[in-house]
Design a protein that fits this description.
70% of the residues lie in helices and 0% in strands. The chain has 129 residues and is mainly α. The longest helix is centred in the middle third of the chain and has 31 residues. It has five helices and no strands.
């Protein structure tokens, strides 16, 4: 008897939907319109995750861009921005890999705050076929 996990096409589709946030999430939600609840959840969650990541990077770029222009304090804010960006990049990568693993194993795992927003997105009438 094998101890390996059987991967269905739904699991593979869920992993693909989570592969390149927010692009594949939007593709699976709006173009492919897969009816599998696991695929739809991971597509919606990674759409929201990708959009939030991009939005956070834009906001931080603007904030640190403005703060580094302050005389005498600009260098300090410039030095602070490096570890902040690095921490966000490492955390985002870790969350992305973890959601990929969960999707491929056929499990739903909600990213805090983002998962709840994804579930709200799934109940929108425009997303029902």
């Amino acid at each position: 008897m094998s101890n390996s996990i059987q991967h269905s096409s739904g699991n593979v589709s869920a992993a693909i939907a989570a592969a390149v946030p927010p692009i594949t999430g939007a593709t699976y939600l709006f173009a492919i319109k897969d009816q599998n609840p696991l695929v739809r959840f991971h597509a919606a969650q990674n759409l929201v995750f990708g959009a939030a990541s991009i939005g956070l990077n834009i906001v931080l770029s603007i904030v640190f861009g403005v703060l580094t222009r302050i005389p005498a304090l600009g260098l300090l804010f410039g030095l602070i921005s490096i570890p902040v960006y690095l921490a966000i990049a490492v955390a985002s990568f870790g969350i992305w890999v973890y959601t990929l693993m969960k999707a491929y194993n056929g499990q739903e795992w909600e990213i805090p705050i983002i998962g709840a927003q994804a579930r709200k997105l799934l109940v929108q009438p425009a997303l029902h076929v």
